[in-house]
Design goal:
Number of strands: 12
Number of helices: 7
Family: Belongs to the 5-formyltetrahydrofolate cyclo-ligase family.
Strand content: 15-25%
Enzyme class: ligase
Distance between the termini: 62 Å
Bound molecules: the ligand Nc1nc2c(c(=O)[nH]1)N(C=O)[C@@H](CNc1ccc(C(=O)N[C@@H](CCC(=O)O)C(=O)O)cc1)CN2, adenosine-5'-triphosphate
GO molecular function, one term: 5-formyltetrahydrofolate cyclo-ligase activity
Radius of gyration: 20 Å
Helix content: 25-40%
Shape: globular
Pfam family, one: 5-FTHF_cyc-lig
GO biological process, one term: folic acid-containing compound biosynthetic process
Strand order of the largest sheet: 3-2-1-6-9-11-12
């Protein structure tokens, strides 16, 4: 009977062209991921550092970053060869709250920002974005990525972005490969696709402006059109920031970033 159920199963899959294409795309994603991982490991450290600095400078000098009030960003992992976010995170965290003195701007005349970073909850692609106020709020997880704990140094619960009363302006996204059409290939956990989908629905319900989804990318991670396999749950990015500049993709990116 196990043979019977197997053949029914595969017959159903084979008669479903969507299923077949999806399976093929998933396999192509795996192949592209390993190619890109290999290419990233072959970039000399000094070139990577140069690109890290160029990318972070583009973000830090931009009006769209300076004027943002709430951001979700990843905590970069050098071992994974992710574009460095250290300077960006520090800048977000350095905007001092003048509290009762009521200054809206700090000494960098930059708007005070709330920063949310990812925390993996389980293997079912569930990730939360929790607010941190200092890098000391972060602890290395089993994958050696720094993540927020559930409570901060004072024992207070870190705010979950899904429970925040105001919208996120910008998501700074990691990934393995991107193209100028806005496709993004992640590490395969589905964490960002699931999270971005949920946040998109939340923003829609609340009638908030959708956050700009901005991917940070080394030059070697930008693919020609039609190289990145696309599946149904993939969500596009609005823009890329590469060492050679900001690449706006969506109408929202042209409006808000140019
Ligand atoms: N900095 C950072 N934080 C993040 C993510 C990320 O991509 N970057 N995530 C985004 O999802 C979530 C964590 N997901 C992750 C998924 C895979 C791997 C990883 O180490 N992958 C290895 C290969 C593992 C394997 O399959 O053998 C790799 O890509 O080399 C890390 C994080 C949430 N936090
Ligand atoms: N919105 C979603 N709802 C349910 N499952 C999803 C969703 N998005 C992705 N998945 C599942 O997650 C797994 C990984 O998807 P995919 O290969 O597209 O990940 P990725 O884009 O590389 O990862 P990430 O989104 O974390 O960057 C797949 O099994 C996919 O079906």
């Amino acid at each position: 009977s196990s043979t019977v159920s197997f053949s029914i199963c595969s017959a159903a899959a084979m008669s479903n062209s969507v299923g077949v294409l999806h399976a093929a795309a998933a396999e192509q994603k795996r192949a592209l991921r390993s190619r890109i991982r290999r290419e990233l490991r072959s970039i000399p450290a000094d070139q990577r550092t140069h690109e890290d600095n160029e990318i972070q400078k583009l973000v830090l000098d931009s009006l769209w970053f300076k004027s943002s009030k709430r951001l979700c960003a990843y905590v970069s992992c050098e071992a994974l060869r992710e574009v460095d976010t250290t300077k960006i995170l520090s800048e977000c965290l350095s905007s001092i709250d003048h509290g009762a003195f009521g200054h809206h701007f700090d000494h960098h005349s930059q708007v005070k920002k709330k920063l949310y970073v990812p925390r993996v909850e389980d293997k079912n692609s569930n990730m939360r974005m929790l607010e941190i106020s200092t890098m000391a709020d972060l602890v290395a997880n089993s994958m050696k990525i720094l993540e927020p704990s559930l409570t901060d140094a004072n024992g207070n619960d870190c705010e979950d972005v899904m429970l925040a009363s105001e919208p996120v302006d910008i998501f700074l996204l990691p990934g393995l490969a991107f193209d100028r059409q806005g496709h993004r290939l992640g590490r395969g956990g589905g964490y960002y696709d699931v999270f971005l989908q949920k946040y998109q629905e939340l923003a829609k319900e609340r009638e908030w402006k959708q956050p700009l989804r901005v991917a940070l990318t080394y030059s070697a991670q930008i693919m020609e059109e039609n190289v990145i396999p696309v599946t149904l749950t993939d969500l596009p990015v609005d823009a890329l920031v590469s060492p050679s500049g900001v690449i706006p993709i969506s109408p929202a990116a042209f409006e808000r970033m140019m």
